[in-house]
Amino acid sequence: MSNSHSDALVFFGATGDLAYKKIFPALQAMIKRGHLNVPVIGVAKAGWTLDQLRARAHDSLEKHGGVDAAAFEKLSSLLRYVDGDYNDAATFQALAKELKGVQRPAHYLAIPPAMFEEVLDQLAKYGGATGARVIVEKPFGHDLESARHLNKVLLRTFDESAIFRIDHYLGKRPVNNVVVFRFANPFMEAFWNRNYIESVQITMAEDFGVQGRGAFYDETGAIRDVIQNHLFQILCNLAMEAPARTDSESVRDEKAKVLKAIPSLEEKDLVRGQFRGYLDEKGVAPDSKVETFAAVRVEVHSLRWYGVPFYIRAGKNLPVTCTEVVCRLKRPPAVIPVDLLSSNYFRFRISPGLAIAIGATLMAEGEKLAGEATEIVASEHPDPGEMDAYERVLGDAMAGDATLFAREDYVEEAWRIVDPVLKKATPVYVYEPGSWGPNEAVRVTPPGGWKNPVVGDEPPAASSRAA
After folding, report:
1. pTM of the model
2. What is the C-alpha separation between 70 and 301, in angstroms, rounded?
3. Run of H or E residues at 345
4. What is the layout of strands, in order, in the sheet containing 79-83?
5. Residue 174: what pLDDT?
6. 31-64 burial string, b = 16+ CB within 10 Å, else e?
7. Which has the closest alpha carbon to 242: 251, 232, 230?
8. How far apart are alpha carbons 162 and 165 in whole angstroms?
9. What is the pLDDT of residues 350-405, one digit of tens each?
10. Is the distance from CB of 79 to CB of 42 less than 8 angstroms?
11. Which residues are catalytic?
12. 118-132: per-residue pLDDT in tens?
């Protein structure tokens, strides 16, 4: 089954917010590329008809990317709808009728994890799991224990090879560009190790708050929401060894090895913050200790990276919206006065846009042997025709390519790293909206300080300029 394409897509939660914002636009895009030509069966309990689901899809596309008349007509012809409760056998009997003749369905659970067990049990009971794949959304639990339970629930019905745990962040081209840049350019190998790199910092900043999702966020926080999944994925792309082959298991083996080499977080390696005004958000507990900012320090105890600190920070209501990596290189012996040198670095812009920059030192103007910091930048603005992350991951899952999906061992290792500090009542410090987090975050700061992203500073093509 691993090499065969799914011959139907069933998505539970067809009337929900995720379907409205992401799934319908992804399905239309897949049709436009000729990547989708199988029945698409929505399942939900809304009391709707198929025509109402089609209308919902049309409205979704109008607001999220635009309607392509020909592609929407094709999508409408592929759409089916089953209305009913997930704990009602009649719902799954109706689904079985829609799947008559289908050999390899892909079941996409765009529903809360609390509903997974009931849906999977019903699928198994009524034959929907035979020859099938299952696609599940994050969060994969809220701690190590719940993640293990969720994995047991999934593995009770499906083999690991048929389970596709979506982290849509891995569908983003700039995230995977880090891997290509590392392994396709031989010069990188010479210094991409503990002998030359002093520290690595990863920043995911958002210049907005919780945007009306206070109730969800107050059950989650920055560490659970983006650090232990999205930003650990970036860390793995930076730190992994070259896979023996490019098949999905070889790639995922190397990523899992990175997490296994990271000791669990300790309190001294974490600072949490909460922006002023968070407690006034709708759905947030008046005494909430949930973090909207976190800075953590981890080490990868591998031969390549032993002793190199990796700093990760993420937060809401920061000065800009940007995700960026900065790898600082060690300074050379002071042939030229050290106070005139800033350390070299590599900078990877993940979003917005894509950029790779090298921080270097050149001779300053004049005759004195003095250095001046310069940055050489290669950037690429998003291609309007580029695949959206959801289009990519849904297409890969239906094709059976698991490269961009989290494996059972990876998920559990990621939770192992953050679990101890999540279970402790570490302090939460208030910070002002528009700042770079609480003052106490200085405790978890890379050597030489954080290099704060500046959005809108990327030139349209490769160039060099003074930094």
Report:
1. 0.90
2. 53
3. strand 345-351
4. 79-83, 40-44, 8-12, 105-109, 133-137, 163-166, 405-406
5. 83
6. bbeebbebbbbbbbeeebeeeebbebbeebbeee
7. 251
8. 10
9. 988 889 999 887 777 766 666 777 888 987 776 666 788 899 999 999 999 999 89
10. yes
11. 230
12. 999 999 999 889 999
